[in-house]
């Protein structure tokens, strides 16, 4: 690609840096401190020289005042002002400073000093070029405003958009909190295969690939479940995995084809055990966010369980309410979920409102849709958006839960819950089915008449064989990590909490529209 005039000007400066005897792309730079740590050391009294410090950062701002030059540099912890005075530098160093541009990375040695206006500064004695940037940064007052550009060039977003890097760094704090909570309860973290011979464990369309050496069709995993249960059979009684899963489906505010899940299994527990665990995981993560965030305006209670959500807030204070699926259906859909005629009429009403697809109604009218699937569709249309939460929705229709143990004395109800917060499903959990014969029967029932992507689970004979060895009664839990980070960082699209969300190919000039 031909360089533009800005890049050409920077290339000229790069050449000048080389002529001055410096490497324009830098070398190892040991012993530097974070800017936040350095700022703490600055003398309180203006004009007094403090300790000599060594820092590194990116140039974000520059200006001149007479014979002085002022630069602002930034690192991951903050910003600081640099003060260049011709009397403090050699002729070569002053000339080297003249080759700097916004976006360049520099190393600085010099004493701290507070200016008369109170600005914490470093009086530069030695300048080291660490990397010459060849790209013109966004215009300083407006930055990058095109969302597509920000997402496609995430590095610019991280550097120049206020709060983006802090939010994404909070993701790591949240993950650390999750691991600490589970480690404190003796759970073991494992890694299981990403390539599966069977696309099982969830209802989703998989990505397909091919292994050449074995001439074998494989699938990128759509869930973590079946391998983790096999590990539980093998004696790892408390096990979890935080991993990427892949679903060949649409993209919207809460869905990305590649996303992060945590799945957790606890032997000798049930879905009530997993409700307690879910509450602990999330509330501990909320506390971690409040302790580490200066930008989310968390409420000042101690400990704080309140975080902002747009113009509203979410109160995560435990304990959280637990409501049955049937009660919520009756409350918000206005009929009993066992009344097939009323449920179907409600489905037709929601279709007229645009909340259920017409082809679903056509299949329902022809008798090709299981009644409980109609109930599920109406629940999604009428109930989920009403669930402010956090709220545990418990006791689902058994027919839509093929991996779940039935309620004692009521085989039509599955011991399953989903956690909803502001209408968003965050967690899904079961009392796990460990009867191999019933599991095999349910797999077959689910597969009858359903397309591959519509079936809730695929027949995995290795998993059935593992159940025959004997899996302890257990609770199982899945939490969408990206959605958890969204809720805890006041982010209303999943793209804001994934470093590199999937995008369409960029349209090249003269190439026409991307497909």
TrEMBL record:
It catalyses: tRNA(Lys) + L-lysine + ATP = L-lysyl-tRNA(Lys) + AMP + diphosphate. GO terms for cellular component: cytosol. It comes from Planctomicrobium piriforme. Binds 3 Mg(2+) ions per subunit. This is Lysine--tRNA ligase. Pfam families: tRNA-synt_2, tRNA_anti-codon. Mg(2+) 1 binds at residues 418, 425. It comes from the Bacteria. GO terms for molecular function: ATP binding; lysine-tRNA ligase activity; magnesium ion binding; tRNA binding. Its EC number is 6.1.1.6. GO terms for biological process: lysyl-tRNA aminoacylation. Homodimer. Mg(2+) 2 binds at residue 425. The keyword Transport does not apply. Belongs to the class-II aminoacyl-tRNA synthetase family. PROSITE patterns: AA_TRNA_LIGASE_II. The keyword Disulfide bond does not apply. Residues 170-505 form the Aminoacyl-transfer RNA synthetases class-II family profile domain. Its cofactor is Mg(2+). It is an enzyme of class 6 (ligase).
């Amino acid at each position: 690609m031909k360089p533009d005039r800005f890049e050409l000007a920077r290339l000229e400066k790069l050449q000048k840096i080389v002529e001055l005897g410096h490497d324009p792309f830098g070398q190892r730079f040991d012993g530097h401190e974070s800017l936040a740590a350095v700022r703490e050391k600055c003398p309180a009294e203006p004009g007094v020289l403090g300790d000599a410090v060594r820092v590194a950062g990116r140039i974000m701002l520059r200006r001149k005042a007479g014979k002085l030059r002022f630069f602002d540099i930034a690192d991951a912890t903050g910003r600081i002002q640099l003060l260049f005075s011709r009397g403090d530098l050699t002729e070569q160093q002053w000339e080297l400073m003249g080759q700097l541009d916004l976006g360049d990375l520099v190393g600085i040695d010099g004493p701290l000093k507070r200016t008369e206006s109170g600005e914490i500064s470093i009086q530069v004695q030695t300048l080291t070029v660490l990397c010459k940037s060849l790209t013109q940064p966004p215009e300083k007052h407006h930055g990058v405003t095109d969302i597509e550009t920000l997402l496609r060039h995430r590095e610019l977003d991280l550097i120049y958009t206020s709060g983006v890097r802090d939010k994404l760094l909070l993701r790591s704090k949240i993950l650390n909190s999750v691991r600490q909570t589970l480690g404190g309860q003796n759970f073991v973290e494992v890694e299981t295969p990403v390539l599966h011979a069977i696309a099982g464990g969830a209802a989703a369309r998989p990505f397909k690939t091919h292994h050449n050496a074995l001439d074998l069709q494989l699938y990128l995993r759509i869930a973590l479940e079946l391998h983790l249960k096999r590990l539980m059979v093998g004696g790892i009684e408390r096990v979890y995995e935080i991993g990427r899963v892949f679903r060949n489906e649409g993209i919207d505010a809460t869905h990305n084809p590649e996303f992060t899940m945590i799945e957790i299994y606890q032997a000798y527990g049930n879905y009530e055990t997993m409700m307690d665990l879910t509450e602990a995981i999330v509330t501990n993560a909320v506390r971690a966010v409040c302790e580490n965030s200066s930008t989310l305006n968390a409420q000042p209670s101690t400990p704080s369980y309140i975080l902002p959500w747009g113009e509203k807030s979410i109160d995560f204070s435990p304990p959280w309410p637990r409501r049955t699926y049937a009660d919520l259906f009756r409350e918000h859909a206005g009929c009993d979920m066992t009344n097939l005629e009323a449920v179907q009429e409600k489905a037709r009403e929601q279709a007229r409102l645009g909340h259920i697809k017409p082809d679903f109604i056509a299949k329902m009218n022809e008798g090709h849709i299981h009644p409980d699937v109609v109930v599920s569709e109406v629940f999604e249309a009428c109930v989920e958006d009403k669930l402010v939460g956090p709220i545990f929705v418990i006791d689902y229709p058994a027919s839509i839960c093929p991996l779940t143990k039935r309620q004692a004395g009521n085989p039509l109800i599955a011991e399953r819950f989903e956690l909803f917060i502001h209408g968003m499903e965050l967690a899904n959990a079961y009392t796990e089915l460990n009867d191999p014969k019933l599991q095999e029967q349910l797999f077959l029932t689910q597969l009858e008449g359903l397309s591959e992507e519509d079936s809730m689970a695929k027949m995995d004979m290795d998993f059935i064989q593992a159940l025959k060895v004997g899996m302890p009664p257990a609770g199982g839990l899945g939490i969408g990590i990206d959605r958890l980070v969204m809720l805890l960082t006041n982010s209303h699209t999943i793209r804001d909490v994934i470093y590199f969300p999937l995008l369409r190919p960029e349209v090249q000039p003269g190439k026409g529209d991307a497909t």
